[in-house]
């Protein structure tokens, strides 16, 4: 889902560092499921009144887990009130301990497991229950794949788009080895009470940093570089950002590796343009980490929920790294977004190409085009590919990547699909196919209206959020039928699920 970084994600379940296409869109409910509180009702029965019961934090009671929720938590019912328990699996019997009480549901933790699921396994990461992004590491991999298909089914049941009971929900496509796949580590940096420099992620629902010295889902080189740079910061006594005091300089370290070229980029995100001991740091990186081919500094001043600032400065090596996908080379600048799972990215885009089934002479629009990964992979079949994005750097990268790969039948413009599609049609361009790959918030309402007005014969929706997918399908299925939904596991060990939806125009 090509894009540029903008939003802060406290857990490792960031989606995929899946950031918004621009700041006019906000993320949905995030990693924590609030049952049915933020969803637009659609064709739904009147809600039954939730029983009023007296429950206190710390109270314990036995509970049977009936199913798993969209964020990977177990769900049981105590006196008809839903109870959400992270780490619990379907059919397990647990003793639940209440951690918070809301009007219509409870949150709890496992005090004790009385009956264990046969699908439960020991997590590889000791902190899997502390930070986001490891929600399913205690569930065996076949169970994870089945869960992700079920998440799509749950979302369809909630929103009820036309004909949803008859959709072809295909088994989730997974990995042979669901570990060591993440090509980017984005860790906060802080100094603990003993003065030790740490880098990791915030604990769930807090700003308490959990130092991640190892991480089983990261590509090994990203952790090698991350931990070496943390030690350099310690040795050089570099000023580390203090969130409470709003002082210090080094805030975040970002390490990204290109799986097919062995390029590695390090970005130091700082509170100010100043970077004391910069020369010493760069010298050590060059001497001790020859695999790092690009070093950048991003400046993000002040206390903010955003990880990235607007200014990025070149420090050493190349200004960008190069990744290859489906035989094409893509330049990745510091803030350019690329899927976090290189091997499954090829699976995902391969499924999109299969669903589009482009024929010679057909034209296609790549909405939310980012750096052009999807559109450029279609250029060898299509007569013409047009794309758009709201980030100027993304559009520039798309056109530059096309030129670098010798592709001459693509065209990328700055703007939104709802702005550019009508303009292109007025000039005589009528797309045979459109592929949309929106952020977690789903399609913009105006874009849905535009798609239904343009009515391309072929439409493919690549989704990173089954809930917003199902919501969007409510509108799209007025004019389109869903041929099938193919879920793809882009982020094993997490509750996140991608899906490719093939839609065809109703006659």
Structure classification: alpha/beta
pLDDT below 50 for ≥5 consecutive residues: which ranges? 1-45
Shape: globular
Spatial order of the strands in the main sheet?
Answer: 7-22-23-21-20-17-18-19
| Total beta strand runs | 23
Determine the mean pLDDT.
89
Helix content: 10-25%
Q: What is the distance, rounded to the nearest whole angstrom, between the alpha carbons of the first and last residues?
A: 30 Å
Q: Summarize the biggest pleated sheet.
A: 8 strands, mixed
Number of helices, counting only DSSP H or I runs of 4 residues or more? 9
How would you sum up this structure, described in words?
With 507 residues, the chain is α/β, with parallel strands linked by helices. It is built from nine helices and 23 strands. Strands 7-22-23-21-20-17-18-19 form an eight-stranded mixed beta sheet, sandwiched between helices. Strands 10-9-8-11-12-13-14 form a seven-stranded mixed beta sheet, covered by helices on one side. Strands 1-5-6-4-3-2 form a six-stranded mixed beta sheet, with no helix packed on it. Strand 12 (264-270), helix 3 and strand 13 form a beta-alpha-beta unit. Helix 1 runs parallel beside helix 9 (466-476), helix 2 (220-235) packs antiparallel against helix 3 and helix 7 runs parallel beside helix 8. The radius of gyration is 23 Å and the shape is globular. Residues 1-45 have low confidence and may be disordered.
